[in-house]
Amino acid sequence: MRKNVIESYNAVCEKIFSKSLDHMDHLEKMTKAINLIKENKILFVAHYYTDPMLQKIAEETGGIVSDSLEIAKFCKSHPAKTVILAGVYFMAETIKILCPDKKIIILTKNSQCSLDLGCPVDEFRSFKKQHPDRTVIAYVNTSAAVKSEADWVVTSRIAMAVVQQLAARGERLLWAPDKHMGQYLLKNTGADMVLWDGSCIVHDSFKSSELKKLKYFHAGAAVLAHPEAPLAVLEMADFVGSTKGIIDAAVRLPNEKFIIATDDGLFYKLSQLAPDKEFIRAPSGGVGASCKSCAHCPWMELNELSLLLDALEGRGGDEINLCSELIRAASLPLLRMLDFYEKENSL
Ligand code: SF4
């Protein structure tokens, strides 16, 4: 294995998670996984919130570490016939919708998302029926079935621009499933929106009262927050945006310290791209809590190196299968977003 992989691996383990690991065992597994991915011409992609070891393997094998939008776009443009994802289920479905001819495998189908789970398609249809005159916007953290019911699918990166444009056209909107992001969009656009009552269990746990105290002790630190956090937290932030937006802001802004209100899996990329800056976890526990800052997604945590090896050796992994009708219906609002995104970025 290359020296820089070992150094990076050790730094990640010690600096970020301080886990007690059997380093040699993991290094051997990483080497084996890297070799299998390359030999079998598999595309391995990982979300920012997954284990740094998996992120490193994706980088080393020509895959991508990114957010759900960039991952899906990258898979679409890549020639590989088989994609393995370290992420959560709705992301794998999104890749399948955009790449129906590829074999899409997720390390475990148990890696879910509270936003997706909290928005079952039958209840979503009933909600739509109560508001028949509204344009339906589904956040990307939803099932393929919910996406197929939407006029638009958006990611956190593009949500504000889409809502602004639809509101400017006088459209009345229905937003699902993240209520915090919905409140943030509503506040910043003045759009006429009804909101589904869902949340991300990780971002929902950030506490504005504790953040206020932390800011006091770290004067000069900029707060970077994901819009899935509660509005009271977002109102204290210097920057609100997607995971990619948070990384870009950390690199771009002159501050030396940053308080980060998103899943702590992002610290791997932040430390990699802004090594001279200090990153502090935003508080997720109030007075008396046993964990003051434990913002990590339990479903992302299910993505383990051993499961990647199982998938690569044909013993595990769960393939995503969606019927062609569902793919067709869910791809319409998704492609509408990609088209909008391309136009926005070509301006
Ligand atoms: Fe879903 Fe939150 Fe986990 Fe992301 S961090 S996958 S939004 S539960």
**What sort of overall outline do the alpha carbons produce when their principal axes are compared?**
globular
Q: If you compute it from the alpha carbons, what radius of gyration comes out, rounded to the nearest whole angstrom?
A: 20 Å
In the CATH hierarchy, the third-tier topology of the largest domain is known as Rossmann fold
* Tally of DSSP helical segments: 16
Instruction: Return the domain count.
Output: 3
Bound molecules: iron/sulfur cluster
**How far is the first residue's CA from the last residue's CA?**
43 Å
Give, in spatial order, the strands making up the sheet with the most strands: 2-1-3-4-13
- Count of extended strands: 13
Name of the CATH homologous superfamily of the largest domain: NadA-like
Task: Round the mean pLDDT to the nearest integer and report it.
Answer: 91
**How much beta, percentage-wise?**
5-15%
Instruction: State the low-pLDDT regions, or none.
Output: 1-13
Could you explain how this protein is built, in words?
The longest helix is centred in the last third of the chain and has 23 residues. The N terminus is likely disordered. The chain has 3 domains: 137 residues, Rossmann fold, CATH 3.40.50; 106 residues, NadA-like (Rossmann fold, 3-Layer(aba) Sandwich), CATH 3.40.50.10800; 79 residues, NadA-like (Rossmann fold, 3-Layer(aba) Sandwich), CATH 3.40.50. It starts with a helix and ends with a helix. It is globular and about 55 Å long. β9, α12 and β10 form a beta-alpha-beta unit. The chain is built from 16 helices and 13 strands. By secondary structure, the chain is an alpha/beta fold. It has a 5-stranded mixed sheet with strand order 2-1-3-4-13, with helices on both faces. The structure holds iron/sulfur cluster. Iron/sulfur cluster binds next to α6.
